[in-house]
Every structure is written in C-alpha cells, then in structure tokens.
Amino acid sequence: MCFFSCLASAQSTSTNEELLITDNPVGHPGGRLVVSLRSEPKTLNPVTSADISSREVIAEMTGDLIHINRLSQNTEPALAKSWKVSRDGLDYTLKLRRGLRFSDGQAVSSGDVLFSFRVYLDEKVNSPQRDLLIVGGKPITVRRLDANTVAFHLAQPYAAAERLFDSVAILPEHLLGQAYRDGKLDQTWETSASPGQIAGLGPFRLKEYVAGQHLTLERNPYYWKTDREKQRLPYLDEITFLFVPNADAEVIRFQSGDTDILNRLGADDYSVLKKDQATHSFRVYDAGPSLEYNFLFFNLNSALPANSDISRKQAWFRQVKFRQAISLAIDRDSMVRLIYREMATPLWSPVTPASAFWVDAAIPHPARSIDQARKLLRDAGFSWSETGELIDSSRSPVKFTILTSASNSQRMKMATIIQQDMKELGIAVEVVPLEFRSVVNRIFQTHDYEAAILGLGAGDVDPNSQMNVWLSSGNDHIWDLGESHPATAWENEIDQLMEKQLTTLKPQARKLLYDRVQEIIAENLPLISLVSPNVLVAAKNELANFKPAALDPHTLWNAPELYLTGPGASGQP
Amino acid sequence: MKISRKAMLLAIALLGLHLIVLFAGFLAPYDTARQNRELPFAPPSHIHFVDAQGKVHFRPFVCMMVDRPDAFGEYLEDCHRSFPVYFLVRGAPYELFGFLKTDLHLFGVDAPAGIFLMGTDAYGRDVFSRFLYGGQLSLFTGLVATVLSLALGMLLGVLAGYYGGWCDAAVMRGAELFLALPWLYFLIAVRAFLPLSLGAKDAFLLLIALIGLVGWARPARLIRGVVLGSRERHYVLAARLFGGSDLYLMRRHILPDIYNILLTQAALLIPQYVLAEVTLSFLGLGVGEPTPSWGSMLSTLQQYSVLVSYWWMFLPGLVLVPVFCGYVLLASELQPGRRAAVA
What we know:
CATH topology of the largest domain in chain B: MetI-like fold
Number of strands of chain B: 5
Strand order of the largest sheet of chain B: 1-2-3
Distance between the termini of chain B: 20 Å
Largest sheet of chain B: 3 strands, antiparallel
Low-confidence stretches of chain A: 1-14, 568-573
Radius of gyration of chain A: 26 Å
Mean pLDDT of chain B: 86
Oligomer: heterodimer
Number of helices of chain B: 12
Number of domains of chain B: 2
CATH architecture of the largest domain in chain B: Orthogonal Bundle
CATH superfamily of the largest domain in chain B: MetI-like
Low-confidence stretches of chain B: 339-343
Structural class of chain A: alpha+beta
Strand order of the largest sheet of chain A: 1-7-8-12-11
Largest interface: A-B, 39 and 28 residues
Strand content of chain A: 15-25%
Radius of gyration of chain B: 25 Å
Structural class of chain B: alpha+beta
C-alpha cells in the first residue's frame, strides 16, 4: 500500500475543522480585485459549463478532491487530506477533511462526493466532464466507506489517475439533489440564479451578477484553507469580473486603472506596457513558455472523393520527404521575432518546453535550410521548371492553399511568412483567411481544405491530455479524422505507445514511451510545429503573492493567497 | 451640360491620382511581397542632402537602418556608408499596365540599404510600394464596380420607367429587395462558400462583380424617375406619333436626360465602392496575402500596439479622406442647379 499524506492538519478549536495550512507569505485581509473577462459566462453550473469564461468564474467558486498546483505542475491534497492507492493501481481510497462546510454553512460529507460523481457520470445529464472520468472504456466508480472516506475503482491502472480529480467540483447535494431527481439539473445555477441558491467549496461565492457589465464574487467565510498564522483564506474580500469585449479594450482598461490583472497579453501589447511600467504602478511578467503549440498541417484524410483536386494534391502531401522539406524551409526564428518579439519558442515538436518533465530534449532542431529542403524534394521526385516553379513527376506545378482563421492575427502572420518561404522553394501558396467557424467546419466536417494553420493548447502537461490528438480514432486527429484504424505504420506505432503509456504507472517508463512518440512525430510530421507563445501577463504593483503560471488559469490559480498592499483595489467598475 | 471650373479641377486631380497608381510598377522601388525580416516596422527613411561632415550633396542619399539589439522595432541610422538615391534604375521586374514587361523604376538605392518612403510593415515590406499597388486595387475596384452598377441600374431603370406596368413593378420590388440587403454580411457569406482554390486575381474580379451587382438599385430608381418624366415630354410624344421605335426614342430623347444623373451617381458611388472594398479587406475578407489593398494595409491598425507606435501605417487611411472629399465635391458640382446638398 502506498501512502500519501497532506502537509499538516489544523484543528480549529471551535468547529473541529481539518483545514489545509498553506505556506505562502502571510498577507492581510481586505480589498477588492477587478479582473476582465472577454466574454460573459454562460452558466455557473459546474456540471454543464463548457466555455472558458464560465470555467474561469466557476474555478473560484468550487473545490476539488485533489488539485494540480499550476506552478509546480504536481498534484497536491485539496478536499482530500490523504489517499492510499492499491498495489494494482485500481483502487484509490481518499480521506476527506473533517468538519468542512459549503459556502452557505452546510456540512460537507462523503454523501456530497458520491452525489457529485453520480451527476458527472450520468449519461442523461451529459456533462462535458463525463469523458474525462472514463478509464479503460468504463466510468470510474465510487463508494462510501464512512462519513469521511470514499473509495474509487478504475477498470484499468491509469498513470495519471490523481490528475483526474483536478477541477472536478464537489457539489452540494442539499441544494442540487432535488433538481437532479427532477431531471432539471442542467437548468439550475444559471447566471441569473440568486446567490442563496448556489454554494460551493471554493474561495469565493456569488455576490451579484449584472448582465452585460460585471459579475462579483465575495469571500467565502467557510473556506477550508488558512495561512501559517491561522488567518482563514482568502485574503481578498471580493473579486469582480468585468466584461470587456476584446483584447485591445482589455489593455486600455488595464492601463487606465479599471482592472488589476491582465491575463494573456499579446507580445505587442506587452512591449507597449513594458515601456509604461516605470512611470505607472503596474508590472508586466513573462511567465515562460506556454502549453500552446501552433502548427501547419496537410489534409491527409483518406475519406475524400478520388478524383477531386485535393486528393490529387494529397499525392504530394502524403510523401514524408515533402513534409520534411516544407518544415526545413520555414523560418521559425522570424516568426518568434516578428510575431512575438522574441517572447515565444520555436517548435520542432508539439510538446513545448513548458512540460519540463515530458519534453524530449533529444529531438533535433535543424536550422532552416533551403538547400536541404530542395535536396529532399529532389529525392522525392520533384523538380523545377525553367521559371523556377516546383513541379511533380507529371510536370504539374506544385501549389496549395493554407486555410487559417481571419480573426487570429498571429496565425495569419505565420501563414504570410510561410507563403514567402515557400516561394523560395518554387511553391505558390495562397493564404485563405476565413471566419473561425468556417475553418472549423472545413477541417472537422467537410475536410474541404488543402493545408491549414491551427493552434492547440494542451490543458495539462500530462501526455494523456493529448490522447485525442495522437490516437487514430481521436476527435482531434485533425490531419486524418474518422479513422477507426491507423492509416500508416507510424500512426499504428503511435497508437500502441499512447495506449501503453496510459496504463504504465512508473513515470520514467512512461517518459521513454512518450519520448518515442515525439520522435515519430518529428520524423513523420503529421503536424509541422511552428511556435509556442510565452505566457505574458500584467498586474498592479499593489497585488502581492502574484505568481503567474504556465498552466491555466495563469493569474488566478492561487487566488486565495492574493492580497492587496497599499490603499486597496481599483475604484468602481 | 456645362461643367464648372471647380468640377474640372477636381476631376483632373482625381485623374492624376489614378494615373499615379496606374504607374505603380514604375514609381514603386520594390516588389510588394518582398519581406525584409530584419526591418519590421521601420520608420520612413530620412532623405539626406547634407552629410555628417556638413557637405551638401546635389544627389540625395540614405543611410543604413540598423535595429537596436535590445529594443524590438526601434532603429538607428548608421551613416558610415551613404547610399545615394539613383533615378531610372533597374530593379525587380514587373508588368506595366499588366502586359508591358520591364524592370525600370523611377528611383532606388543599392543593396543592402533600402529606401522606404513610408516605412515598412510587420514583415519589413515597403509600405510606399504596397500603397501604390494597393491603390490600384482599391481605386479601380471602385471604378469597375461603379460601371457595373450603373450599367445594370441604367438598363433596368430605363426599362422600368419607359414601359411601366408589370415591368416597372417587378424592377421596383427587386430594387427594394436589394436595398434592404445587408451587403456586408451577404459578401462575407459568399466569401465563405467560395472554393479555396480561387486565385487572388479571380477573387478580386468576383469581389468587384459582387459589390457592383449588389448596388444597382439606387441608380435604377433615380433613373426610372427621370425616364418617367421625360417619357411624357411633348417632343417624345411627337416623335412616337411620327413612327419612332422604342429604341430610337430611348436613344435619341430619353438617354440625354439621364447623363447628368449617371455622372453624379458615378461620383457618389465610386467612393462608396472603394470603401466597400477597403472594409472587406480590413476585415480580412478581401484579396489575400501578399496582394496589398488599402483596406488590408489599414487592418494592421486594429492592433493597439500598432495604433500607438507606428504612425506611418495610417497613410493609406489619410489618403482616402481627400479622395472621398474630391469625389463628393465633384458630385455636388455636377448636380444641375449646383445645390450644395450632398445626396
């Protein structure tokens, strides 16, 4: 039996609560924080929420059993103070902290944990969380051992099982039980709900929501964490989420003092703010590489009509040497410089340096070489016409279109740089910007595209968060969707390796498997990785304990520990 | 039809601008797609006549622009070597008016220096060259789309006004439909349905066709009104009694009345269509990269950092203002009776 225990348990003399003691620098209570959100949350219901804004707000209102520390990227005890894993890796027994209460004062027990998992796994409720709780094809099961102990059973050993629990909010049965039994759970806890109807285990609880303007959370007086000096967290009295429609407006509001934090700055805005920080009372932070990776990929779908234009061009795209040549000709350094002002990392693999443990350092980073690229194309049977155009073995000129989203200026710039790079190979590239939903439709539904530039953001450093991309049957296997069986030998090898690492429990053994996956991807290039932007944020100087992290949420992940020095937060929204 | 002196001057000024952009290939020192990746957002080149020693040169010269190592987008001039500006130089080949192959440019400097009269953009491309070529696209889209609109509007307006009855009703209901159409969303929707393989030139032609065809309704209504009036004139009735055919009557008696309307409508429609193309390109839905148009050049200003840091990116927008004013003033000058109202 393995044994994991928490840092320390404190007994509060009056209520016998087992609280978690944090080791952050001690602050003082009070103050209000104002943060901007680019769109209004659609719901405050943790079971049904799917959009980013809803999840950002809900994250401050809910608590989970085991939490991933966004800075260290490791799991740590949260509502569960300790847990034991059986030797075969199939059973997890979690001990809950005693004496905890929801934000409305009602007691927490294992009954709430059972209720929560029943709701998430219920197919009729159809929560987006459900898929995340399926291991080995079967949903995990939970049973109650006593008032403060629960046991989870998995159908097969799962390496990252602890990480499953992160952000799975524990729900109050006393408030949602009836709605669930009536089948109306998905209609509860909308943004229009009154604060009295909602309760959670997060550092904050709902205070008020004004549609079109802001949503305010107030301090949860029953929160289960204290600092070293027994002060109950959070320090802040309130957090206000201000709705600001777009990135440029966010920067302007921050500069004028309306908001206290800027989450995810663009590199250009970062430079503008950096010049101002000496004379204003804020600071910009470069939190290092993110998990986002941008890439160029070709349409390798096999399900296309045989004599269409695209399937004719696939004869070029399917050749590994063609893709390798394209990758060698791309000027990644210029992308890092021109698009991100050096605040990005060039990528030759989709695993970014932000995953310090998992990234394979042995993947080669070949320098840009047009000569090498031309040699590869010659080996693949291509040649050049008298006018310098690249032609294939049947003397037709090689040209293709790159699809990208018109609203994403960074990817548009990547496309324009690649277009010019391809000219040096004699390939005529058209850049086609379309509205984002049209792009998604063409890539995922109709497969009516030749090449495209997209970005994916891994939710977690663990390789399991990328299963959908690498498995041939995965929903995000974008270059070739809808395959139940792998189309090539190397995709077959990736499938097997990914399945194997899912159940390998030792981290080092998993790393060897995942390294091999990265090597195969770098060799065969289903995705030609381009750049990964750094996480750039800004915050007012009065905000203390501010530690931006590479994992989302970058700025508010440690909201309970944030406090304000000096004369309080910004003024009225 | 008397054209006032003021209208003449305005027309000549506008014609001059169109001629300048027509000669874009000759006047522009560089190719529009050429990226100087070490010089993004370089400010306009300083043209020097006096060198560091105080000596005055008859021939102007430029210095090398070197980027500051610690600051992105900030440059220093390195005047150790001066690069004189030569005139009538051989440079990148191009096709004047689309068919005359040549490589003669009005001015240029030797490599590795560059002469950027309006600075460079995000990829280090010469804004002045792109401005001239972009003007070709933006201005001539306006012209061609206007011709399309007026041709279609004239045809349908004359038919509706002359024949009346069901023909009139059908055309007028159709006009109302087109007037109610939200043209921007319509064009965006059409763009999403186009096949991906459409080349830049074909996309441009399609764009012009769409903008022009969508806007026939207003001229058609105006022309119909005039035709309704002139159809009842005595000399028209007399000509008909003498056996004149419909076509003869239209050509000889009705059309001269609508020339004035056509001219004023043209002067009003051209800037609207230029703006339509600029708007579409601004939203990223016009002609694709790397082909420049004034709209796509202005679209970089949507980014806050560009808006506050690089003033030379405003230039296409600044030129649009006098162009529009010119056309609108011309339209008001051409109106019979010279009422100062802008329709």
